[in-house]
From TrEMBL:
UniProt protein name: Rieske 2Fe-2S domain-containing protein
Keywords: 2Fe-2S, Iron, Iron-sulfur, Metal-binding
Organism annotation: Komarekiella delphini-convector SJRDD-AB1
Record InterPro entries: RibonucZ/Hydroxyglut_hydro, Rieske_2Fe-2S, Rieske_2Fe-2S_sf, UPF0173_UPF0282_UlaG_hydrolase
PANTHER family: UPF0173 METAL-DEPENDENT HYDROLASE MJ1163 (PTHR43546:SF3), UPF0173 METAL-DEPENDENT HYDROLASE MJ1163-RELATED (PTHR43546)
């Protein structure tokens, strides 16, 4: 087995009988509305030979994993293997490129791609998060590609067991795909504090995942992106100190924790898993992560015409967007009352520029509706009107948020998972899957924990998405329990979630 980096989260896996591409993202226009670009660039890998794989495996629907530009160049009958998700978004994105042979497989079910090579997926437990690990077994070796999936430690151990106890290569995301806290209205100091926290949370997940999987070689990848539009240049500072650490920084941090079986692959570098050796791509002979500023400056100049051409495709509207906005959100409000009840607040939209306005969507019982005035909101978004028509015509809100082309605010300062869930899925069957999952979570089983001289009986499974707190519960000073799955924090005395809109944790001091 040979594993070649295609840049970002893209991998080419070659065995004796097959070549599989996983999550190739090579679009010269970057993605997320001309916002994200591959860092470092992978454009030298766009060659005809890359366009004849045995199959493609795609982990989830984010556009840095499903690249319509690249997929449209493949032969239409190329098999595309994807996990089953409640939402049809991933399938729709692939079908829009002309690819016809889409094979959806339930998680844990291997599919043979050719003699001696198979693939299976393992998805996150909650249908609120469409992320999946991709496992390839070929030539007697195993690649576990975690990409953006935040699997529980129990799931990771089960994968190891399923493949016979040895994971040869573990690839895992070193820099999260997120807009929090960078797009929120915080003071600079508070933003830095939250960015640091998010960076450390990601690092500690990597350390725990590596400890659970015990791979022969661990490769951090799938980020960071870089931002080449001058309007977004500020986001590149997140590489140095914030939520988008580069691979070298991740590896350095892991070394500090005593994790030394790591490797960095730049686009085009090949790791021969059988020989345990790396063949560096000579293209990078002069590259260093420490020259980031000058690299990004040059890269930005090279892409200036692509970015300008892209933005020209999103002109300012010439008519008011109020009516289509109202119709769109009336449709969302009618989609799932469980979600409305969970969101339970007024959300403001400050759409700037021609055709825009200050509008609100109220999800509170008794006030439900779409309003032509913003009023007092608990959550708000501000962005340019040029992006709104695309959103109202099906651009997924999560793809838009990942573009960082907006500002958000919220009061109280707590995360509302169901608001993002409604916006990103906007589809009855996906919302129903989340509702069913959350209503089926077991809150009966209890565990005992100790904090600051007190003993508490708490529910074993996190009220957010049902992960086992025995495995991922961390006790913080001040009688607080943090669930390391999505970092919700609970006051052990009251059970109240302190940083997210979430059910009470069942907790009793004994
Ligand atoms: S499962 Fe999401 S915070 Fe616990």
């Amino acid at each position: 087995m040979k594993v070649t980096s295609l840049g970002h989260a893209g991998l080419k896996v070659e065995t004796n009988n097959a070549t599989v591409l996983i999550d190739p993202w090579l679009s010269p226009e970057g993605t997320f509305l001309g916002s994200w670009f591959q860092y470092p660039s992978n454009q030298h890998l766009i060659t005809p030979s890359l366009l004849q794989p045995t199959a493609i495996a795609l982990s989830h629907e984010h556009l840095d994993h499903v690249d319509p530009w690249f997929l449209a160049q493949l032969p239409p009958d190329t098999p595309v293997i994807i996990p089953c998700y409640p939402s049809p978004i991933l399938k729709k994105k692939i079908a829009s490129t002309g690819l016809k042979n889409i094979i959806e497989i339930p998680q844990w079910q291997p599919v043979q791609l050719a003699e001696g090579i198979s693939v299976f997926f393992v998805t996150e437990d909650s249908p609120m998060n469409h992320d999946a690990a991709v496992v390839i077994v070929g030539d007697g070796k195993t690649l576990l590609n975690l990409n953006d999936a935040r699997l529980s430690l129990a799931q990771l151990c089960s994968i190891r067991t399923k493949v016979g106890g040895v994971i040869d290569v573990l690839t895992l995301q070193g820099a999260g795909a997120s807009w929090y806290p960078v797009c929120y209205e915080y003071s600079q100091e508070r933003k830095q504090e939250l960015s640091d926290r998010k960076r450390m949370a990601k690092f500690s997940y990597l350390e725990r995942a590596i400890a659970s999987v015990k791979p022969v070689t661990a490769i951090p990848f799938a980020g960071p992106p870089c931002f080449l539009d001058p309007e977004l240049a500020w986001a590149n500072s997140e590489i140095e100190n914030g939520i988008f650490p580069d691979q070298q920084q991740v590896v350095n941090w892991l070394h500090h924790q005593g994790v030394n079986n790591t490797m960095i692959l730049l686009p085009g570098d090949v790791f021969d898993v059988m020989q345990q050796s790396k063949q560096p791509d000579p293209f990078w002979a002069d590259f260093s992560f420490s020259d980031r500023d000058s690299y990004i400056k040059n890269y930005s100049q090279q892409k200036a015409t692509h970015i300008a051409a892209f933005k020209a495709r999103y002109p300012e509207p010439t008519e008011s967007l109020w009516k289509p906005f109202r119709e769109y959100f009336q449709g969302l409000l009618a989609m799932n009352s469980y979600f409305n009840h969970k969101i339970d607040m007024r959300v403001g939209f400050d759409i700037t520029g021609a055709g825009g306005g200050k509008w609100a969507v109220d999800f509170r019982p008794g006030y439900e509706g779409v309003y032509n005035e913003i009023g007092e909101c608990s959550y708000g978004y501000r962005f340019a009107s040029r992006w709104l028509p695309a959103l109202l015509h099906g651009l997924p809100w999560e793809d838009f948020f990942l573009s960082l082309r907006f500002v958000a605010w919220r009061d109280p300062d707590i995360y509302n998972d169901h608001l993002l869930g409604l916006l990103k899925f906007a589809c009855p069957q996906s919302l129903q899957a989340v509702e069913d999952y959350e209503n089926s979570m077991d809150s009966q089983e209890q565990i005992t924990i100790h904090s600051e001289g007190q003993t508490y009986k708490i529910q074993r499974y996190c009220p957010h998405a049902g992960v086992d707190l025995q495995e991922v519960g961390e006790i913080l000073p001040g009688g607080i329990l943090r669930c390391l799955s999505h970092h919700y924090e609970f006051d052990l005395e009251t059970g109240k979630c302190l940083n997210g809109k979430c059910k009470l944790l069942d907790s009793t001091r004994i």
